[in-house]
Amino acid sequence: MHFILRFSAKPLLGLLLFLASNSILIAEPAPKISRVGGDYLVTAIEHLDKEEFRIQFSAVTPTGKFDQLTLHSNHVHVAVKQGQKLRLSAEILADSGATAEVAQMVIFVVNPQGPIPVWLLSNRAGPRELNATKYLEMHSPLTDYIIM
Predict the structure, then answer these.
(1) Are 43 and 56 in contact, with CB atoms under 8 Å apart?
(2) Using CA atoms, how far apart are residues 69 and 55, in angstroms rounded to an integer?
(3) Residue 28 falls inside a structural domain
(4) Which residue in 47, 46, 37 sits closest to 69, CA to CA?
(5) Domain residues for 70?
(6) CATH of the domain at 100
(7) Cβ-count burial of 29 within 10 angstroms (0-12 exposed, 13-18 middle, 19+ buried)?
(8) What long-range pairs does 109-113 form, CB within 8 A, spacing at least 24?
(9) I need a surface site. Which of 11, 13, 29, 142 has the fewest CB within 10 A?
(10) Rounded to whole angstroms, how far apart are CA atoms 102 and 66?
């Protein structure tokens, strides 16, 4: 059974003009997302309560911006150890110059077959759209399919 829908374009056009004139269709510009990457040392891993950990990272080569990173998470990945040097790429949630809180990050765990990317998420970032494309922007696709 087939249905044919017929409608007049005039009411639809009127609705679109109304929405546009009331700024309902005008999209807000997306906020600029800050990212940082480089070599960092894991300087502290603190178990704050039952379901929250604070992991702190310090830049190996400080630049004055994002030298100290903090990630609040509900777990600590087995590959993350205090005193360890890691290459990472992080998306900034909030910053105050040299220090920043991280919304998400990819750390690159050293492996004889090549670096393995591990994605870490903040539990303070709130409801956000974390598409796979954002993950792909943050690491090398050459190591996507290494299973550890």
Answers:
(1) yes
(2) 8
(3) no
(4) 37
(5) 35-143
(6) 2.40.50
(7) exposed
(8) 109/79, 109/148, 111/146, 111/148, 113/146
(9) 29
(10) 10
